[in-house]
Amino acid sequence: MPQHTPHAPFAEGQIGHDLLTRLDEAARYSQPGPGVTRLFCSPEHRQVLPLIEQWMELAGLTPELDAAGSLVGRCPNAQAGKPTLTLGSHQDSVVEGGKYDGMLGIAVPLIALEALRREGITLPYGVEVVAFGDEEGVRFPTTLVGSRALAGTTDPQQLKARDKQGISLKEALRSFGVEPDGIPALARDPANTLGFVEVHIEQGPRLEQHDHAVGVVTSLTGIERHQVTVSGKAGHAGTTPMPGRHDALVGASEMVLAVDRVLQTTEGLVGVVGQLDVHPNAVNVIPASVTFTVELRSPQSETRQRGHETIQAALDEVAERRELTLSMDNTYRADGAHCAEWIMHGLEQACATVEQPTDRMFSGAGHDGLAMQDVTDIGMLFVRCKEGLSHHPDESISAEDGEAAVRVIMAFLQQLDAFRCR
Q1: Which of 173, 227, 230, 383 is deepest in the core (most CB within 10 A)?
Q2: What is the mean pLDDT of residues 112-141?
C-alpha cells in the first residue's frame, strides 16, 4: 500500500456517513421496483462495477474483473506476491432485496483501507478485497461461483447451469466480457493466503436485543438445494372429469405442505419452498407440470440428510397416490463451516481496541465462507440491522454501527500479525 497520505484523515463520524452514502449510491444500480434487484451478470451488475472500482482505487487497490465475474482489488504487496489476506462479500442481491446484504461487506473493508491509507499506515502483508459476482444463487440454480473459483473447487458442471431464459452460466459470463475457461487459474495458493474475512449484516435480531453494534461469528450453516419436477397430464379444464385427472399443481401443492410438515417437525432443520413454476400456466388448462425448489439448512449434514430423505419419501407417496411422475435433483450443496479461532479472537480483540462490546454468535445464513473454507481460514463480523430484517427493501443499519464495523476492521488489519502468531 502506498506510503503517502493523499487525503486528510476522516473526521469523527465521517466514516459512517460516507459508508451509508456509498451504499445508497450502489443501491441505484437495480432493476425497477422496490428494494434492490441486481442479479449475476445482469446489466445492473455491469453498471455497478465502475463505482466499486472507484472505491478500490481510493483504498489504494488495483481493480480487475476476473474470469468468474468477481471484481478483485489488490494492493501492491498482494500484486508482488506477498502473503495476502482476502476480504469482501457479494454484490448481487435477491429479488427486491435490501441495500446492505452483501454490499456492506465490500464497502466496509474498502473504507477501512482508505482510512488507514489517509493516516499513512502501511500494512506489511498483502490485501485483496473481492466483490463476488454471485452468492445469492437467484439467477442460476447454482451459487458461490466467485468464491469457489478462488478456492479452486469450481465444478465444470456449474457452467452448464441455465437461467429461466435458457442462458447457460458459461454463456452469461462470456456475454459479461470474461472468459470462464480461465476460472481454474483463479485458485489461490493456500500457503500464500492468510485468511478470508467477511463483514455482513446479522440477518437476525440478537445484536439488537443485546444492544451491540457488532458480533463475532463462530460458524456458518450448511445448505442444500433441490429442484423438484412434478409431471401430470394437461387437459381442458371444462371438459375433463374431476375423477381421474392428473393435475400436477394439485399434487405439487400437497407436496409443498408435506415439505413444510417435515421442516416443522425436524429439530435443527429449517428450509423453504421458494420458487414455483407452473406449465402451461393457462387459466383454463389443467397444469401438466410444476417445478419447485426445496432449500434445506442446518449446520449438521446428518440433519440435512435425514430431512432430505424424509421429504423425498413424502413426495414419492404423493406422486404415487396421484399417479404423477416425480424427479428431485440436487442443484447445490455446501457443508457448514467453522470460523478459525485465531480470527474470532482477533476480531474480539479489535472490538476491544475500539471499545465495542461483542458476542460470539452462529450464522443461520450461508456466505462465501462456505466455499473459501476449502482454501483458507475464515472469519466473519456481523453488524446490527434494524429488527433483524434482511432480504427485504426495508433492510437498515445506522451510520454509527457502520462506523463501528469499519473501525473494528481497521484495528484487526493493524494487529493481524499478532493474532496469527498466537
Answers
A1: 230
A2: 95
